[in-house]
Inverse folding.
């Protein structure tokens, strides 16, 4: 075998280029054949096609044998070489196996094919790099968790909403809220999953705020095919915390501190969906008060009044 | 290959020796720092090679490994120079899409898995973080689990005490007062709420049941083995939940539905922790009404009135 130059070894370059194709799952027969053919043709000798073909085959087999004798398993499937075991293995603890089986099982039950594919690809890439013992342990562990209760009855709606998120369209959504039908015009962004259901997260372009609509509450969706540029002009809500909460509160990732005294803390919250924020601030009881904007402060006051009205003359 | 299977003898006709040597040198340098002499010795003693190699040739192989993308580092041990591969192109790479999918799946299941599962996932996240290229996603994944930044050994110890309902005294960093103080707790259970890990139990000093953020527990000072078993009073509340839309109601572990129809649910919640029950009721806000006990219902009404006053005063 010829050398590229005095400082490089062609055999080394070839075997690792071959490995690169194998790791990237792109080692189709033609690509690999060309790799070794080009190497042979770098010499001055001239071969007829048959001789060249035989020579490439011989050289290729020598490299495959080198990998096999070293312990790397390769199989040939549909005109492609497939890597079955890695050149090296990564450490894998019992906790790693447990975590991988949880992620694998849970993602397979989420009705989102892209999440499923991403986790499945990751699992294959990790599996490839495990030693035999860890690989068997992981294969045995997958299936130990049951997340089958997830979203089976709204699977199709979730998949449809996910497509809308990818398409960057404007949606006109009719949905149920407080026993009434409401409408909104929004740019869908993402799907959020909780234990019991999934939410379509988006930006309400009329109210200029982020919203989350539980997918089972959606009555109908009209699609405006106009592609949109992302909106980022979300509502900022300022609230005040008092007493012990002001001393112990930890800012969330979407929050900034406006001001702080010994007993108060004023916080600027940006982009948190209102229903979620209201439920959180209600938990803080009288140690929290929304300052601005006024219409959101009024909404919070209405919510407190409605909660009180539930008790009537009690 | 058939001959090799029978005799275990490798010839130049059977395999690429330069390819095989490259694989040997690569694996040795991935394994850890090696001197040229150590590499030479391992190659010369390899059962399939049994041929000499010069140090100059080893240098050429190492240059070739650099060419294919291996990062080869030098390390000095006294006057000895050793080489190792710190990174290579065949390492596991976790793409942004894969990292984001991990985060999504984790958030979807985080309310339905157990503490030991969180611990396993956290361990896994720490181990794989080095394969994530995007620094923001790397940071997010490491902090994802409620057990991040908490001493795992202490969590295991606390889990043991909650199983046996043991009374323990801990040094606690009380953020409220800004002081470190000793708290004695009859450890009842570990609880994850809003992405935070709590130790729940009866505090004999204040004679109440409470939740203590585990991340603020500095250390366990004493284990009070001979403490008589405490009969902690359980707090039971019945409330009505108004169904105003099609969102499935998320029942807590401490809750059960005692009656339901199309417009409402009657839910019973049992807990030792009155504060947690109050928070649950308030978070359900206008969708909920406490039915019993009356004194608790009055407390909720009084709390809502105080909240209302806060808004009226400013008008």
């Amino acid at each position: 075998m010829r050398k590229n130059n005095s400082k490089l070894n062609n055999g080394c370059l070839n075997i690792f280029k071959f490995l690169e194709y194998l790791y990237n799952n792109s080692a189709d027969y033609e690509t690999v054949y060309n790799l070794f053919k080009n190497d042979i043709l770098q010499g001055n000798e001239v071969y007829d096609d048959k001789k060249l073909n035989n020579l490439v085959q011989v050289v290729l087999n020598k490299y495959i044998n080198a990998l096999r004798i070293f312990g790397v398993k390769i199989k040939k499937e549909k005109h492609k070489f497939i890597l079955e075991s890695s050149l090296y293995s990564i450490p894998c603890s019992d906790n790693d196996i447990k975590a991988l089986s949880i992620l694998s099982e849970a993602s397979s039950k989420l009705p989102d094919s892209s999440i499923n594919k991403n986790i499945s690809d990751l699992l294959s890439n990790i599996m490839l790099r495990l030693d035999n013992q860890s690989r068997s342990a992981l294969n045995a562990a997958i299936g130990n968790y049951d997340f089958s209760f997830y979203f089976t009855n709204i699977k199709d709606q979730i998949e449809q909403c996910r497509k809308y998120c990818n398409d960057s369209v404007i949606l006109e959504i009719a949905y149920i809220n407080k026993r009434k039908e409401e409408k909104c015009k929004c740019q869908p962004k993402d799907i959020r999953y909780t234990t019991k259901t999934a939410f379509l997260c988006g930006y309400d372009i009329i109210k200029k705020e982020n919203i989350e609509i539980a997918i089972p509450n959606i009555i109908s969706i009209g699609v405006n095919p106009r592609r949109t540029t992302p909106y980022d002009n979300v509502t900022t809500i300022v609230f005040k915390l008092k007493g012990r909460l002001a001393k112990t509160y930890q800012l969330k990732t979407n929050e900034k501190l406006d001001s702080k005294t010994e007993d108060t803390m004023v916080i600027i919250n940006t982009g948190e969906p209102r229903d979620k924020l209201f439920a959180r601030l209600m938990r803080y009881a009288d140690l929290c008060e929304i300052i601005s904007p006024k219409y959101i402060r009024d909404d919070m006051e209405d919510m407190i009044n409605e909660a009180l009205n539930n008790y009537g003359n009690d | 290959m058939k001959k090799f299977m029978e005799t275990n003898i490798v010839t130049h006709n059977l395999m690429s020796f330069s390819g095989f040597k490259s694989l040997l040198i690569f694996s040795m340098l991935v394994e850890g720092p090696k001197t040229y002499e150590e590499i030479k010795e391992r190659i010369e003693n390899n059962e399939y090679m049994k041929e000499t190699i010069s140090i100059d040739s080893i240098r050429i192989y190492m240059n070739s490994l650099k060419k294919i993308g291996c990062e080869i580092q030098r390390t000095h041990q006294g006057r000895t120079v050793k080489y190792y591969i710190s990174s290579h192109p065949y390492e596991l790479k976790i793409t942004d899409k894969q990292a984001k999918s991990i985060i999504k799946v984790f958030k979807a299941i985080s309310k339905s898995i157990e503490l030991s599962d969180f611990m396993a996932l956290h361990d896994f996240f720490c181990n794989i973080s080095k394969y994530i290229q995007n620094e923001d996603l790397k940071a997010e994944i490491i902090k994802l689990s409620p057990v991040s930044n908490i001493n795992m050994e202490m969590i295991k110890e606390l889990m043991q005490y909650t199983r046996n309902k043991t009374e323990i005294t801990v040094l606690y960093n009380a953020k409220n007062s800004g002081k470190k103080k000793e708290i004695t707790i009859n450890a009842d259970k570990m609880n994850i709420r809003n992405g935070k890990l709590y130790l729940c139990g009866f505090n004999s000093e204040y004679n109440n049941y409470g939740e203590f953020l585990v991340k603020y527990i500095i250390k366990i000072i004493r284990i009070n083995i001979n403490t008589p078993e405490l009969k902690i009073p359980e707090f039971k509340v019945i409330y009505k939940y108004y169904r105003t839309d099609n969102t499935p109601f998320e029942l807590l572990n401490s809750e059960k539905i005692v009656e339901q129809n199309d417009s409402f649910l009657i839910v019973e919640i049992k807990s030792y922790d009155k504060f947690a029950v109050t928070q649950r009721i308030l978070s359900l806000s206008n969708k909920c009404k406490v039915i019993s006990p009356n004194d608790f219902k009055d407390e909720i009404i009084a709390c809502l009135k105080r909240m209302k006053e806060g808004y009226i005063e400013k008008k």
Summary: Chain A has four domains: 10-83, 94-141, 153-224, 236-309. Chain A touches chain B through 94 residues (CB under 8 Å). The CA atoms of residues 3 and 9 of chain A lie 6 Å apart.
